[in-house]
Amino acid sequence: xxxVAILCFIITLIGYVLSKKLHQKYPYMLLAPGIFVPFxxxxxxxxxxxxxxxxxIENKWLIWMLGPATIAFAIPIYExxxxxxxxxxxxxxGIVIGMFAxxxxxxxxxxxxSFNQETTYSLMARSISTPFAMELTSNIGGSVELVILFTMIxxxxxxxxxxxxxxxxxxxxxxxxxxxxxxxxxxxxxxxxFMRHREEGVVACxxxxxxxxxxxxxxxxxxxxxxxxx
Length: 230
Description:
Elements: H1 3-25, H2 33-47, H3 52-64, H4 66-71, H5 74-79, H6 81-86, H7 88-112, H8 117-124, H9 130-140, H10 144-169, H11 174-196, H12 198-229
């Protein structure tokens, strides 16, 4: 039994509960649990020289729970199934184009900075929500640890710039706004979409889940083709 790992687990849970209450009272982005708690934990780990492997001993199951949490998004999707059926073509095209844009931009970014193969694959897999990205990167030879980091950064950056970009694009459709948030910022974007409007949240759920399924099934072949021939 590793007491340091158990203490890290307790701090993570307590930190999340307290941060959630703090964010409800002061709804600033930097105080969101997904941003504030990891920052505090990283600072504490650096100060007390706690390794990542030690932290993960008792906390790895929290990452495993991302899978069931993602599946839970199916509930609002089912409730709005008739509305979604009316826009199925637009949503499908948005998912496919969004995935290709994410993979291609990641590939050329990795090429620009001369990343090695493992880092390149991990970066290309970050264009979907964390549980799907973990499954994809394990199938293509990337790093699960890196893809978690890249996916988190993607979600945080997407939420930080979401309002500004959507305003600049002048998207009036809630479906378009929700699809953009779900495709680009994954779980963070979906939470943001629900804060804006329920319909936006539902579409964000749908695009996040379907883009994840799409990439897990076809992503390995697409990524290897791009790396090999481009």
